[in-house]
Amino acid sequence: MHTELEQGERLAALLRSLPEQTLGPYDWSEFRRRAHERAALGQRIGEGRRVAAVVVIAVAVCAGAIRWVESGPRPAAPPAAAPRVDEASAERYLASLPHEPAVVRVGTRAAVATLEDHIALVDDLLSAERVERAPPARLLALQHERSELISSLVQVRYAEALADESR
Amino acid sequence: MTRLADITVPEEVRARACAGDDAARQAIYAAVAPATFALVRRMIGYRAASEDVFQDTMMIFYERLADFRQEAPLGAWLRQIAISRCLMHLRSPWRRVRACLEGQGPDATPPGAALVSPALPPETLDVERALATLAPTARAVVWMYEVEGYSHAEIARAFGRSVSFSKSQLARAHLRLRAWFEPEGSRPTCILS
Q1: Fold of B1-91
Q2: Could you say which DSSP state residue A75 is in?
Q3: What is the reported pTM?
Q4: How far are the Cα atoms of A59, A145, B193 from residue A148, in angstroms, in the given order?
Q5: CA of A124 to nearest chain B CA: how many angstroms apart?
Q6: Fewer C-beta within 10 Å: chain B N or C terminus?
Q7: Which residues of B touch A19 (CB under 8 A)?
Q8: CA count, 13 A, side-chain hemisphere, A77
Q9: Does A20 sit within 8 Å of B3, measured CB to CB?
């Protein structure tokens, strides 16, 4: 009759006895091909970010123009103060917004989704780097990247809010 | 057979790899990739997801190779990166969303075949099959505790959960594995395709 402890130890021994090198990965050339593919994808993401910035500016300009046309030569004050760039207040501002804008525009929605994806990715990276005790410079760089993304997201959402207000 | 944590690489090869020498990088890949992939695959389960995490691990490994301080064997350092990437994958909200979209719960058991290599001897095959019946999180906890030597506190920290989470995951996984190995017990179905 085996005790629970003995059974646990037997189980652990069985697991430890599993060979480490039987499940082969792909070869070096395939690894390099995939690495290049990922680098290209990273580049496309960078371009996507630039497109998002252009969309933000375009939406803001349109919203401003609509507001100008509707309210005559003296535009009314904006619905809220432009969000500041520091991260804590930016996050508070984002939390205060409705999850979806009153009018969903495909262009800005895509930009918002892309930015939110990137923020989640950077969050994941940050927690992994902290677990691995990465050098402070790397953590700082990621934190900086996160702040920039949050700031971009605030700008897009603010432009959306302006556009909604001007309807 | 050399375990990942014991794999070392001559300093001269590492230095050449850091300098961008393709042959040196390839030599290191040949030495560490099989054990790294085996570790990732046992923790993740699904082949496609394992390949993604493995690719990620190896790319980070090469990016940071110059930072390696030789306080431990190179394999042990790589193992840390691999485990951390696996945990990141398991915690990822995208994995959960994808699992739900594919009609499985986030902790669904991957198909048994995902972990099983047909080239294994029968007794090993059975352990692999038993392991494959566990949900990804439970399997990762079992592997980290029993094989990699992590403590419950370390596992809890890695998952961002409590120590009792780690203990209960391990206890439930043990029950399931024991049921698998008990001849008269109710053996859980292993979905081998």
Answers
A1: Rna Polymerase Sigma Factor; Chain: A (1.10.1740)
A2: P
A3: 0.60
A4: 19, 5, 47
A5: 7
A6: C
A7: 1, 38, 120, 124
A8: 4
A9: yes
Structure-token pair, residue B97: 């969303």
Each domain of chain B, given as residue ranges in start order, spans 1-91, 114-181
Q: B129 pLDDT exceeds 70?
A: yes
Contacts of B33 in chain A (CB under 8 A): 25, 31
Q: Which amino acid is at A17?
A: S
B interface mutation test: which of A22, A37, A114 has the most B CBs within 10 A? A22
How far away is chain A from the Cα of B104, in angstroms, using its nearest Cα? 22
Classified by CATH at the fold level, domain B114-181 comes out as: Arc Repressor Mutant, subunit A (1.10.10)
Interface size, chain A vs chain B, as Cβ–Cβ contacts under 8 Å: 99
Residues of B in contact with A28 (CB under 8 A): 25-26, 29-30
Do B1-91 and B114-181 agree at the fold level? Answer: no
Is the distance from CB of B119 to CB of A23 less than 8 angstroms? no
Burial of B14 per CB tally in 10 Å (0-12, 13-18, 19+): buried
Please tell me which of the candidates A22, A35, A124 has its beta carbon nearest to residue B119.
A22
- For residue range B13-66, list pLDDT tens digits in order: 999 999 999 999 999 999 999 999 989 988 888 888 899 999 999 999 999 999
For residues A25 and B117, give the distance between their C-alpha atoms in angstroms, rounded to a whole number: 12
Q: Residue length, chain A?
A: 167
The ipTM is: 0.74
Q: How far apart are CA A11 and CA B146, in angstroms?
A: 9
State which residue of chain B sits closest to A117, comparing Cα positions. B94
> Does the distance separating the beta carbons of A25 and B34 come in below 8 Å?
yes
Joined together, the tokens standing for residue A112 give 């918002």
Select the residue of A12, A21, A26 nearest B35 (Cβ to Cβ): A21
Residue A103 amino acid letter = V
CA pair distance A28, B33, nearest whole angstrom: 9
pLDDT confidence bin for B176, thresholds 50/70/90: confident
